[in-house]
Amino acid sequence: MTPGLAFDLLLAAALIWSALRALTTADLFRAVVLFIVFGLLMALAWARLSAPDIALAEAAIGAGLTGALLLDAVGHLRAKRKPEP
Amino acid sequence: MKPAPPLVWAVIWRTALFVLLWWVLSDGRLDSWTVGSGSVALATLLSLRLSPPTRGRVSFPGLLRFLTYFVFQSLRGGIQVAWFAMRPQTGLRPAMREIDLRLPEGIGRVLLINTLNLLPGTLSVELQGRQLCLHVLDEHVSAEAEVRMAETFLARTLRLELEPA
Amino acid sequence: MNGMTLGLALFLLLNLLVALVRVSRGPTPADRLLPALLFGTTGVAILLLLADAMHIPAFVDVALVFALLAAITGAAFARRAWREERETDEPA
Amino acid sequence: MSLPEIASFILLLAGAVFFFAGTLGLLRFPDVYTRLHALAKADNLGLGLIVLGLLFKAPGAAMSIKLALVWLLALAASATASFLIARRARQHSIAPWRSGEHE
Amino acid sequence: MLAAAGLALALGHAILQLPQAAVSLPTQVAGNMGQSGVEHPVTAVLLNFRGYDTLLEVAVLLLAFFGVMALSQTQSMCPAEPAHALLQALARLLAPLMVLVAGYLLWIGAYAPGGAFQAGAVLAAAGVMLRLAGLLPAWAQPGRLLRTGLVAGLLVFVVVALIALGQGVLLQYPSSAAGTLILLIETGLALSIGLTLSGLYLCSMETRA
Amino acid sequence: MNAALLYALAGVVLFAVGVAGLLALPHLLRKILAFNILGSGAFLVLVGLGQRDGVVDPVPQAMVLTGIVVAIAATALALALARHLYERTGRMQLPESRGAEPESRDD
Prior knowledge:
The complex is a heterohexamer.
Chain B: H1 6-25, H2 33-50, H3 60-86, E1 95-100, H4 107-118, E2 122-128, E3 131-136, H5 143-158
Antiparallel strand pairs in B: 1-3, 2-3
Helix pairs in contact in B: 1-2, 3-5, 4-5
Chain D: H1 3-28, H2 32-55, H3 61-91
Helix pairs in contact in D: 1-2, 2-3
Chain E: H1 2-17, H2 25-32, H3 41-49, H4 51-72, H5 85-108, H6 116-132, H7 144-167, H8 178-204
């Protein structure tokens, strides 16, 4: 097996794993972190697919916007949580 | 001759810096300057707007000495952390230290905090007034000596006066 | 030579994925975030190695964008997300 | 393999070792402050060595400076981010781990 | 769960069975590159061959932004604690660099990977960074300048399209001027994508009581 | 096995995971994450299939580029709507799934 193929296999598995964990883990903050990681891994996947255009867009949006938006939403939910009735 | 006002110098320096950066980015292609001149102008304007020019000047011999010190120290810092991480017993003896800074307020302190985060065994945790709270990996090593050393180098680079401790 | 560079990239990817254990171990939200911050360094290194191995210099630009924006996640976390006083947040 | 190629490879390898150490530190160190040490120092040194190794292969001056710029940006980002997170951790009164406590 | 697994299996099977495409798109694109006005195929597709996709995309972005803005106005706002000097210093340093890099991505788009979308995303990140450092006020009510910037991309696009329409077909530029026109359109696009994306963040985060 | 096809297959799995999550998870933030995963999967399929014979195809790449920007805009709008709902009702679920067990312990 060439290192390139091994890289692709590992990356594909990591993508699927992080997506699954982001949806199934019980903790909302953990889910958001895993989703951010998923987005950044996607940028690597686009690089391996020789699509630097998409890798650039995914990197800029994944690192600059998605994380900020989702972390903000999580903070909002935590700050506003009302005590259970 | 009167010294030039800081604004003119700031404009010249920053434009030169952004021109150099654009040259680096565009790999020196001449046809890039249609977009390049606009981008450099925008970046310079934004930079002047965000950080207004000050009278401070950088000493180049000082900068060179600081960079040598910085590279050498960050090598040491990386090796130290790697050593802690790879030992069978980490042998960490962390502690918190409070130190009064001697650098005056401003860009000097900001650079100091960033530098300390990359130096061996120190992590800045809080800065209130001139009091710096520092997390150290090994309580037996004098954190104060490290801070003083970094302060001296930075003060020389930025031509700043150190305040008494 | 290419094979070796790709092999190093593979090793770094493995490193990155192993570090994801911290996401579930915690214990504080900050600990969980650390693996995401790793992309600022390890991800950049992987991209630089890929640029060299695949002969696509545009990946250096991707790495540049990664490094340029790496601070945003950390800052957004410290300023916006970590607000509560409770720090242990194991799922009930 | 020529001499620059060998030097480049050795530097890349050394960089990978520091990345490994950083990950190890992230997993083994006992609290958030010590883990931030590992992240900020070992990984940045690793990236620096990898950039240095790639400089041997860079086609021109512009590309070399671009690679160095990437490293500088990563340094600034991780130094600031680790300060902000450590500060927040202290504000949340997370006590630093002391030697002798259970790891 | 089972249904999802079944879906995955069926789609995977379909993909593996898919016949080779009758028309080869890469060859078509390569054949028409001469008249596109740019040297990078992805940019040529985005702005010349399938320009109306991009046009509609900007419209969608604006709609989403207006949606977020409408939602944010109904809620009370309170100022967050001021950012630490260190974060402010970093933002002051990085924001001009982000602008420069955005300009670079815009320029390189004509020759190599890059273009208005990536440039817009980096510009938006500069906005997010400045907001996080407390250096940018919130956008409760965008002023006239801001509104103009927001629709600039759409406007430039439409104007160029109308001029071209006078000479032929919608969004088919004369190939002699295609390069300049595309640069013009891309600049407008990058600005308006950058403003819209950062606006999506700037408006949505000011909703805490 | 070629790399483009491998990523296309990974995209199929991601698509299915996203669909399942979108339908099955009650929490709105999770639904938004699932929607994004679904989208990423579809993008991977598009680009991966487009170049499975090794030739890089610019057409799907351009389409995915627009897709990514539209996806982030949709995400921001969805987050704003979800927050709005949360302010009004104190819940992060759609009204019709109120009978399902609440995922209120979300941290």
